[in-house]
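User: I'm preparing a small set of examples for a lab meeting where we compare how different chains pack in three dimensions. I only have the primary sequence for this one, and I'd like the structure in token form so I can line it up with the others. Please keep the answer compact; I'll paste it straight into my notes.
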Amino acid sequence: MLPVIFPIFRSMLRKALSINQENAILSVGIINECFDEVSRLLEVRNGKIDQQEGITKFLLGESITAADITFASLGAIVLQPDNYGYPVTKEEILRSQLSQEFWNLVDGWRATRAGRFVLNLYKFHRPTPKPTLVF
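Assistant: Understood. Below is the structure token output for the 135-residue chain.
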């Protein structure tokens, strides 16, 4: 049933939310600006971001704050960390459904200092999600 309903739902959603090429380009620019700004902030704080050791500095101090959690939560939508949590967002599923152009953007954002910060917050500061039911 889903293969029949989803294309109709997708079309309605695109129209209702004004999802089109022009707005997609604008959104990519906004995401780039956000990641650049947070990357600069992290650089000024001289925080160490290491795959093995985790994060030694946060956005506003020496310990995690609401600012870190907020940026990580919003950034996770585009970065898709390994333990993001919802089974539908598993990268192997998404890679088959979204364009290579999209994944090139994701890989670019992941490579930024801000992107590595988000990935490491999920890796070292978020408990492993519990399995959920998938319908």
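A couple of notes for your slides: Strands lie at 49-50, 54-55. Residues 3 and 9 are 10 Å apart (CA to CA).

User: Perfect, thanks.
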